[in-house]
Amino acid sequence: MLVSWEKRAGLQGEEEATDNRDVFQELLADFWEGLGLIFVRYADNEDADRQALEGVAALLQVMRYPERVERKHDQKKKSVKISFSTPEDNEKSEVEGDVVEKPVQTESELNEKTSGSLQTQHFEDVVCQLAQLCLVHVNEKNSERHLVFLSLLLQSFHTPRVFTTLVELDEKILDIEPEDEVIKKNPAMQFLLERVVVWLGQEERSDTEHLVEMVFSSLYCCSQQETTRILNHITKMDVKWGIILQIIQRACTDPKTLKSCRDWLKGSVLGEQLLALTEELCQVGESPPRPASPSSSHSWTLISLVLSQHHNNEPLIGEVYMEKILERLHATLSETKGLSDAGNMEPLICFICDVASTFFSSVQDCLLLLSAEELLLTVFQLTAQDQTHTHLSDSLLGKLRKVCVAGVESLVKHSEYEVKEGGFLHSAALWVTKQLLTVSLDIKSLQVLILAVQSVVETIVSVCNQDSPLLVHFFTQLTPSQTEWTRIRKALPPQVNQPIHYSRK
Q1: Where is the composition biased (Basic and acidic residues) (predicted)?
Q2: What is the sign of the dihedral through the CA atoms of 66, 69, 74 and 78?
Q3: In which domain, by residue range, is 275 found?
Q4: Mean pLDDT of residues grouped by 10 in the chain (505 residues)?
Q5: Which terminal residue of the chain, N or C, has fewer Cβ atoms less than 10 Å from its own Cβ?
Q6: Sign of the Cα pseudo-torsion (151, 156, 158, 160, in order)
Q7: CATH code: domain of residue 319
Q8: Is residue 74 part of a domain?
Q9: Is residue 165 part of a domain?
């Protein structure tokens, strides 16, 4: 209906205007004025109902992108009804259907040219008025519900005019003026750096998803260079790692958004911060151990994400930083082999196992990296030694075995792998031979070593076959020379050298 009015008013193209153009322009102005008053009545309230605010944002989104909503409803076969109560009813507003869903919108969706969308300036006037109201309530009352509402509005209406309105209001109330000329020229960048970034940095804030969405709504109006500058600034702010995790996850939802964030993701600012985080997480030998916390959980999830996410066969972060992180994980696992009591280390080793397992399972050709092969070798060595030497629990040992299987599968399955000097299979074979030649093994230790080798062989066979060149090369490296066989026999425990006597009943 509104699109039809706009056509008759000449707002969709002069050729479509009718003789009653002025009438329809006035009709549109009256409509938006009335609708704006209704929206303001719901928004300009300290105790505004959250569901009502979400309903207003959803309705405005529907009006801005009508074709996209119709497309979704054709797929879901659901109708949508939004009804607002009158003040006299004193009833809560009601939103039915799936309009209040808050899915992450991709840049391609938000920037699509939708035929039949509303063109009237009155529409944007209403949005600017609501955005200003939100900012006033956030400034004066620190209203979280209005902050969420503002985020929802900006997801659909990230236009220069809306950001200019917000910046002008801030300058008027707070009497602030940016010194940086680049920031001055871009109201979205100014609002982001002076407002959103400050909200993100507040320690007491637990829910930051809507602020991260606000960051990306602002970035839609920024160049790639400005995007890199802003994200580098946020990274240096010492915000919670959970926020950096949310930003990276949000950047990966859409190819265009990912491309705009590429310089930040690949850059040294994020890379150095992630490396420092890995160093902090991998502190070995602490007594007592640090208890697990939501913060540490977010940190490990972040490390796992940046290692396992690849796009177009490229790592998400700079390859040099990915290798350094893997090297640090490998070094931490190696240190556990020399500890007299690994009990304090178990939570840390568990986290490393989770990260390594995800990395080996997710990333194609991941084991072409030397640091990844070294990490896999250390995991294998821990599984191939008796628990009396490693001091690892049964559950942790089970995790390590699964990581080893995942790594060997990835090694065999995803790359043109050859058994070469310095590679995993070559190094594992040499290490096993060395154990047999130089270490005094009891029966239990020998059994554990054999089972670890058997697991590697079975994994290779499960992916390839028994005639695989990999298996032939592995056994060639594993098989001792005649002289070494003699030394091994002499080094075996007395029980093994005794002849086996069979008794029949």
Answers
A1: 89-100
A2: negative
A3: 267-496
A4: 54 53 65 82 86 90 73 50 43 40 47 46 86 92 93 92 90 60 83 92 89 96 94 93 96 93 96 95 62 72 92 87 94 77 75 93 81 93 89 91 94 74 89 85 89 94 82 86 79 60 46
A5: C
A6: negative
A7: 1.25.10
A8: yes
A9: no
